[in-house]
Amino acid sequence: MRSATTIAFKRTGSENEGKPPEQDPGNDSAEEKQEAPILRPDHEAKDIPLITVANMGNQTFREPQSTKEKLGHRRIDEQGAVSYKKVPTNALMQAIQLGISNSIGSLASLPNRDVLLQDFEKVDIVAFPAAGSTITPSHSFGDFRFRTYAPIAFRYFRNLFHIKPADFLRSICTEPLKELSNAGASGSIFYVSQDDQFIIKTVQHKEADFLQKLLPGYYMNLNQNPRTLLPKFFGLFCYQSLGKNIRLLVMNNLLPQTVTMHEKYDMKGSTYKRMASKAEKSKMYPTLKDLDFLENHKEGIFIDPIALDTLMRSISRDCLVMESFKIMDYSLLVGIHNVELGIKERAEQKELSCGEVRPSTSRDKEKVEVTLSKDSGDRNSDEHKVLQEKFSVWDTLDGDVPHGGVPARNSNGDRLVLYLGIIDILQNYRLLKKMEHTWKAILHDGDTISVHNPNFYASRFLSFMNEKVFKKGTAHLAATTPL
């Protein structure tokens, strides 16, 4: 008689296989330790080899293409496709639109009321299975969950700037968003709505967490300082799928693409290494820094006395708010439209349209393309003006100045229109920054470096803007020239 033989089978999959993943929005460490499957729409999945990873059970995913360029969580493969945390950005965009549409639509059934303290901590979570559910449509992006932070509070912020739910949805969810190619130093993804009104930016967990803590103070500031230059926040969301948490912040678009920005400056009030790189300066319209401004505008920019007093009071009040929350490392973003250069560019464009001039160099062609894109954007300029009017803090009677623009002049007498806003306010002065300031102060002049304690940072920032950047003068735009 044969002896009985026992054969043991070892299960290779996880014992939690088939169950939805446990999501912990406060823990990003798990995201970095375990690579998760990539979600791709069916039409993007061609010719991508399938592989199976043993430690992930029998889950199958598509191997990403070799990375050509990487910055933070943002990657660009050899074919030029962009992904964020290995989720293709075009698939992410459509999932975002689906989630925001559901979130804003669900608020319609809730009556308007005063904001309560607990509203700032409220989080709504909706599951979006690919097959659809009783409250969500079917889709091709894979199962995901969508979190909406402080929905009642952000509805109040949108109402404060007269943004109706239908207008908000029309801007963000009805047409594909435009993805900006310049990711900035952080490797964030930026989407812009087709009508040029809103920006959707990916933010890190610590930034999203800090914004949630900031919301009560932000609420007070909007009511006490209606001319604030702080960003206009209209929504905070989180896309969750297979261990990936992608947090998204909706803001106003400070620099409208329908107006050519001939100069852009990101200024912190610091002079230590605050100069744009050669690569940045090689761009047609680079983003310059403090030392570049001091070189290009040695005498500053001239603004009418009443407007300047109003501007500096607003900056001072904003600095006080940020100082109270121990915020530092923020910048004043200044976009400058030169009216005289705009007139010249339109004249060149008119000549080109008549076939009298041909661009001879690649830089000329780039300039023509920018001008033509601006002209095509004029179709949306009226719509932009209407919505820009809603969250503009500057009411000008000059017909030459678009809403949101501040009239000014440079030392040559050229008429300028300034677009101003304080950016990067979600940086809290914590231990890491304290240590960074300490060793930089040892090597260099501690008063000139950008990393500083919030009290000194606010004082230096305000002094730099008041003494170096903005000066009292005549800024009236006398000629009637449309922008």
From TrEMBL:
<keyword id="KW-0808">Transferase</keyword>
<keyword id="KW-0418">Kinase</keyword>
<feature type="domain" description="PIPK">
    <location>
        <begin position="88"/>
        <end position="469"/>
    </location>
</feature>
<dbReference type="GO" id="GO:0008104">
    <property type="term" value="P:intracellular protein localization"/>
</dbReference>
<feature type="compositionally biased region" description="Basic and acidic residues">
    <location>
        <begin position="12"/>
        <end position="22"/>
    </location>
</feature>
<dbReference type="GO" id="GO:0046854">
    <property type="term" value="P:phosphatidylinositol phosphate biosynthetic process"/>
</dbReference>
<dbReference type="GO" id="GO:0005516">
    <property type="term" value="F:calmodulin binding"/>
</dbReference>
<dbReference type="GO" id="GO:0005886">
    <property type="term" value="C:plasma membrane"/>
</dbReference>
<dbReference type="InterPro" id="IPR027483">
    <property type="entry name" value="PInositol-4-P-4/5-kinase_C_sf"/>
</dbReference>
<dbReference type="GO" id="GO:0005524">
    <property type="term" value="F:ATP binding"/>
</dbReference>
<dbReference type="GO" id="GO:0032888">
    <property type="term" value="P:regulation of mitotic spindle elongation"/>
</dbReference>
<keyword id="KW-0547">Nucleotide-binding</keyword>
<protein>
    <submittedName>
        <fullName>PIPK domain-containing protein</fullName>
    </submittedName>
</protein>
<dbReference type="Pfam" id="PF01504">
    <property type="entry name" value="PIP5K"/>
</dbReference>
<feature type="region of interest" description="Disordered">
    <location>
        <begin position="1"/>
        <end position="46"/>
    </location>
</feature>
<keyword id="KW-0067">ATP-binding</keyword>
<dbReference type="InterPro" id="IPR027484">
    <property type="entry name" value="PInositol-4-P-5-kinase_N"/>
</dbReference>
<dbReference type="InterPro" id="IPR002498">
    <property type="entry name" value="PInositol-4-P-4/5-kinase_core"/>
</dbReference>
<dbReference type="GO" id="GO:0016308">
    <property type="term" value="F:1-phosphatidylinositol-4-phosphate 5-kinase activity"/>
</dbReference>
<dbReference type="InterPro" id="IPR023610">
    <property type="entry name" value="PInositol-4/5-P-5/4-kinase"/>
</dbReference>
<feature type="compositionally biased region" description="Basic and acidic residues">
    <location>
        <begin position="30"/>
        <end position="46"/>
    </location>
</feature>
